[in-house]
Design goal:
This protein has 666 residues and is of the alpha/beta class. It contains 28 helices and 18 strands. It starts with a strand and ends with a strand.
């Protein structure tokens, strides 16, 4: 993995990007690629690159060009099928001088044009500059694993892996975009192209955009999550599909474990997904295999026994980091510096500490189980939606909502008020069971209640210009998919991309210069899983049914049969104890709230006082879901605004030496 940045001038040639500007942009990204730095400049373009050396350590430096020196690339990511593509290109007469996947991209683009991206199996953000035609091509991988942001002003375009690199240019205004804030306080994150910042767009996943010399552009989406229409039939039996999925996952894990010139380890959470991937990664490699786990001092979140069982089973060299509430509070400002967006949970903070352990252990790349719940229907929201649709056929039934006791056994033992409140939540919108968004509506509505903390100015801006509604831009054949397929699509669009793979995934890994590799997001795995009948994934109420069949002879029995435990961490309780860091009170003070200008100070102060009082009186207190999300969301927004808006980022150009420095200006 790497960091990329660039500036393209579509105007006169005497306005070439300066060395200082490209250097400053790359300096803000050196956590993404601390091993080497490179720059290319001509009279119209400047490309920068911060390299995390994973493949072809000796000759894979960037920016890199074709034989003629006309086509230049700055690339963040990995193309895992590059060896197969390389062989095909060699047979077609291309001369490839390095062993890197980067050079394969350049020649693939020469050979197939924009169609090359459909051939790639990997994760990427790519900038290709055709110096002869003065054309820029940008592309992003199918699921948006690798980030890419764009700013345009007049005849100049800037792009970068992170927003802070764009803000290294002091001429780019810095202000919070209320639309991005409102989407975060609905969907958990801004949905591309919306971002948290005015005039900054996030490139859509699975997109290719070509800019011509005059600055005009065309773009197309080359892939999208797609599901069978309800009238289609599936040719494989459940047994046959289980075998096929096992083969595809094994291959996806194998190429991610082996196609690297540095050791690849694996995260091990103690759940089904990471256990399968760790096992398959271990099977692919001989010798030492490293696994890494999170532990929590709070027993409610801890999964140590399952992690250690699996580590013993695959004979890995296993390491752990133990996280307490105080640790979360301490690193939270750094976490928000890297997410560049607010978060409604503290879950990214322990992931930051885990990637720090990985890096300190000498590992640069890890396999993870991310994506399994999305492609194989593992989340509770899918099961809840199924019950709610069943209930909606007879909304007056008192027996049908009892099915929720099978999802949450504690409800069967709960006081009637608690159980009644849960059922009231799930009963919302039963009359809309056939409408798009039915599955997610109650959760979006609950999350949106945080917007009551907005001040008058923010609320008025949103009334004047509401944020885009994802339900108004659904695929044309959305209504023809199964209900489960519709639910999966919305989960990928609104939670996975904006939050899970970004704030909790890429950003926390790359903050410590660690690359994540995701076998469940292999294009062959995803397309196969998306083609499966709903009953293979969600069999009655058994989530990820087919994956459990794959795992039968792989994981420890306790892991296979355990109840699903979503990854969580201590939330607001981490910030309201007597030992909380000083920045918490500062960020929530009336003066700072007024300075950032987004929230109603009185309401925030009331929430803060309420949580502190409860925490003081009861150390085992459990805050409501709404209070947790509101507090963490407001605090993280305040941190973000205070870190980024007042002034351009502080640029530390120490240790930035360009080992690749091509200057074609003049």
């Amino acid at each position: 993995m790497c960091g990329i940045a660039g500036v393209i001038n579509f105007g006169e040639r005497d306005d070439a990007p300066t060395v200082s500007l490209i250097s400053n942009m790359i300096a803000t990204l050196k956590h993404r690629g601390p091993d080497e730095f490179g720059m290319y400049r001509d009279n119209y373009a400047g490309l920068g690159h911060a390299r995390l050396s994973i493949i072809d350590l000796k000759s894979g430096q960037q920016p890199l060009s074709n034989e003629t020196g006309k086509l230049w690339i700055s690339f963040n990511g990995e193309i895992f099928n590059y060896l197969e593509l390389r062989e095909e290109l060699l047979q077609k007469g291309h001369k490839i001088c390095t062993s890197s996947d980067t050079e394969v991209i350049v020649h693939a683009y020469e050979e197939w044009g924009e169609g090359c991206f459909e051939r790639f199996n990997g994760q990427w953000a790519i900038a290709l500059w055709d110096a002869e035609k003065r054309e820029l091509v940008l592309s992003r991988d199918r699921m948006g694993i690798r980030p890419l942001y764009i700013h345009t002003q007049k005849s100049r375009l800037s792009f970068a892996s992170e927003v802070k690199a764009l803000f290294a240019d002091s001429s780019i205004p810095r202000s919070i975009n209320p639309q991005g804030l409102a989407q975060t306080f609905s969907y958990w994150g801004p949905v591309a192209p919306v971002t948290l910042f005015d005039d900054i767009e996030e490139m859509l996943p699975a997109t290719v955009r070509r800019y011509k010399a005059d600055g005009s552009f065309k773009e197309h989406i080359f892939w999208s999550p797609s599901f069978p229409e309800t009238t289609e039939t599936f040719s494989l039996s459940l047994d046959e599909a289980t075998e096929a999925l096992s083969e595809k996952l094994n291959e996806a894990s194998r190429i991610r474990a082996l196609r690297s010139d540095v050791p690849v380890g694996s995260y091990l959470s103690g759940g089904l997904d990471s256990s399968i991937i760790a096992h398959m990664g271990r099977q692919a490699k001989s010798g030492d295999f490293r696994t890494f786990s999170l532990r929590f001092k709070d027993a409610e979140f801890d999964e140590t026994s399952y992690q250690r069982q699996m580590a013993d089973r695959i004979d890995s060299h296993h390491e752990e980091v133990v996280v307490a509430r105080e640790d979360i509070a301490e690193v939270f400002p750094t976490v928000i510096h890297h997410t560049e967006r607010p978060v409604l949970r503290t879950a990214p903070a322990p992931m930051y500490l885990l990637s720090k352990l990985v890096r300190e252990s000498g590992i640069k790349s890890v396999l993870t189980g991310e994506g399994a719940d999305e492609v194989l229907a593992g989340y509770d929201i899918f099961r809840e939606a199924k019950i709610r649709r069943f209930w909606a056929r007879h909304p007056d039934s008192v027996k049908r909502p009892m099915l929720f006791d099978r999802l949450y056994p504690y409800l069967a033992r709960a006081p009637q008020q608690t159980k009644g409140m849960a059922q009231a939540f799930w009963k919302q919108g039963l009359s809309e069971a056939n409408n798009p968004g039915f599955s997610h509506g109650p959760r979006w509505k609950t999350t949106s209640t945080i917007q009551k903390f907005f001040n008058t100015e923010t609320s008025e801006k949103l009334l004047a210009t509401p944020p885009p509604n994802v339900l108004e831009s659904l695929p044309p054949n959305f209504s023809k998919w199964s209900k489960l397929g519709q639910d999966q699509y919305l989960e990928i669009l609104t939670l996975f991309g904006p939050y899970l793979i970004s704030s909790q995934g890429d950003r926390m890994l790359m903050a410590n210069s660690v690359e994540g590799r995701f076998p469940f997001l292999d294009v062959n795995v995803m397309d196969f899983c998306n083609s499966l009948p709903p009953s293979y994934k969600l069999r009655v109420l058994d989530e990820k049914h087919i994956l459990k069949r794959v795992a039968k002879d792989i994981v420890a029995p306790d892991i296979l049969t355990r109840k699903k435990q979503p990854y969580r961490a201590p939330d607001a309780i981490s910030f309201v104890s007597a030992t909380a860091p000083d920045y918490v009170a500062e960020m929530l003070s009336p003066d700072v709230l007024a300075a950032t200008g987004m929230f109603e100070s009185r309401k925030v102060q009331m929430l803060y006082a309420k949580l502190r009082k409860r925490a003081t009186s009861d150390q085992q207190v459990v805050f409501s879901n709404a209070d947790n999300m509101a507090f963490v969301g407001i605090l993280s927004t305040q941190l973000l605004a205070s870190q980024i808006i007042p002034a351009p980022p502080i640029i530390d150009r120490s240790n930035i030496t360009f080992t690749t420095n091509i200057d074609h200006t003049g």
